[in-house]
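Need residues for this backbone.
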């Protein structure tokens, strides 16, 4: 059951409120809607940590479309952390 949706501000190019991921925690980990670009992976990891999670806790990634600003870090989450 999903009881909350968290916005993770990825501070793209050191600018807040530019690109975000949306975190859906669930009983088996968490899903992300959008990942942001690969250049924001460190900030994504920091934002997950603020929620008490690591990239290994991300079990699913949901993408609206395949543009780098929406999906660039998806490969990193899949290849290195096992997200589907």
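Answer:
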């Amino acid at each position: 059951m999903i009881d909350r949706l968290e916005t993770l501000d990825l501070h793209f190019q050191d600018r807040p409120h530019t690109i975000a991921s949306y975190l859906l925690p669930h009983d088996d980990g968490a899903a992300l809607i959008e990942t942001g670009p690969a250049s924001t992976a460190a900030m994504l990891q920091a934002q997950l940590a603020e929620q008490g999670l690591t990239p290994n806790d991300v079990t699913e990634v949901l993408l609206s479309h395949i543009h780098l600003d929406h999906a660039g870090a998806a490969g990193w989450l899949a290849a290195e952390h096992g997200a589907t």
